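Q: Can someone sanity-check these two? First one:
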Amino acid sequence: MDNQKLSRMDPRAVKATSVISTDETNGPHVAHALRITAASSNPKMFTLPWEKPLSQWPKDYLANLPRGISRHVVRFVHVGDDVYAMKEITRTVAEREYELLRRLQKLELPTVTPIAVVTGRHTPEDQELEAILVTRHLKFSLPYRALFARNLRADTAERLIDALAVLMVRLHLVGFYWGDVSLSNVLFLRDADSFAAFLVDAETGDLHPNLTDGQREYDIDLARTNIIGELMDLNSGNLLPADVDEVAVGDRLVERYRSLWGALTDVDSFNPNEMWKIEQRVNKLNDLGFDVDELEMKTATDGNRVLVRPRVVDAGYASRKLLRLTGLDVQENQARRLLNDLDAYRASTWRQGEDIEIVATDWMREVFEPTVRMIPPEYRSQIEPAQFFHEILTDRWYLAEKAGHDIPMGDAVESYIENVLPKYRLDEAAMKDINDEAESGVIDDEESYGEYNPEDDPDAAVWAS
């Protein structure tokens, strides 16, 4: 990345360390020397069978988790107490993607966490092997195909699209051009009644100080096309509900993206006696889950209006508030639900005049922690505590409405564990089908995933707009 481009980039991203090997910075690349460049100090990394192709690693090392469709061989691997995702790709691509993910992490964006790049791999017969990019498995997350293999609400496709639209906007706000937007390149976490989307594949991406409208439109158009195709593929496998219109869902992404982008970036015009509307604008952004750190305000040329635009906008308004009060680090909609329950607890105990920090400590000890301790051990790797708590509250409300009276929390938990929680399990047959399908998408062809350069792409002419 050239110095001029770096000088105009967010300082947090600039400070991310680089692992790209060049003769000038790291000396000549030694082809036969195994090299692990890691952001983790896990010593068990050195004990893995790097001398074998990833597809031939012994099952004892592997974690049986659903994999998304990828052009490359991908495996989930136990490394001590951690689970890492390993992707076998060329050294150049691995190092570049690692660096991009590091920069995006510094910008506090929802991506998988880069752990290491492993290069210089050879078999005992001295056959050269591709590099491996190592990322941390995003606990509780699932690829979209695994979600559709379960009993989900009919509007699941729309909720996934809404999450993807939020992710795209957040990435575009910091200048990240994706270049290959699709459901396959995202992992999803449940977030109360919605989903949160995390970038998992940044091979074709690039980070700029800011994006042109043409770059954003290219991503939007590609996303719509890919999503329609992916949903049609689901439909051909009888995984998509019959009432889902694939084209309408693709159009929804465009609509949701434009609406959110406008809310975050448009300039509002106020009369000097309407300054209260500034607070209204900030509250609207807070309701969308975004914090406003700065507002750019200036007087219009006619002197009769004030122009207001958010300058620094970041996601996580509710989650940061909950983290400050309780130490719980959860998704945005989960945080909203937990904060609402905290407010209800505060009112029911007649403590509105007491410091919220003290009340939050008691709510954690008396309400939240006793509830999540009831998660059965076999499900603790299947559902987040905050999501479990949210779903208990929802189920309790339905039970109370049906019974005509309040339901004790303990009874609601028992009912939920017996009747709802089993739906979280993927049976072995479904898991095998998902991973077999993921494996069928692997293309062992270096040209298919060589370093992406928009200048070489004939379709990238739209960038000029």
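And here is the second, same format, sequence then tokens:
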Amino acid sequence: MSRRKADARIVQKRTRFRELRLAKDKSQRAMSLDFDCSESWIRSIEHGRCNPELKFAFRLAEYLGSTVDDVFQDLKD
């Protein structure tokens, strides 16, 4: 029995997330400390490899001074 490779996922970087983070002069590390989560989790969200839970998405958007629709434009479709 052979293993099938998983279908390639389209990963879209969240450039708006990065722009807003940098506008606040925050590093991924600083955000992770502010949210009490790992830096890799913030990095994965920013790079589009993971999606945050809805409650966390609203917290991130508020922190960045924006809306969920603006921060996570790739999820609108």
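A (reply): Looked at the second one. The mean pLDDT is 87. The radius of gyration is 14 Å.
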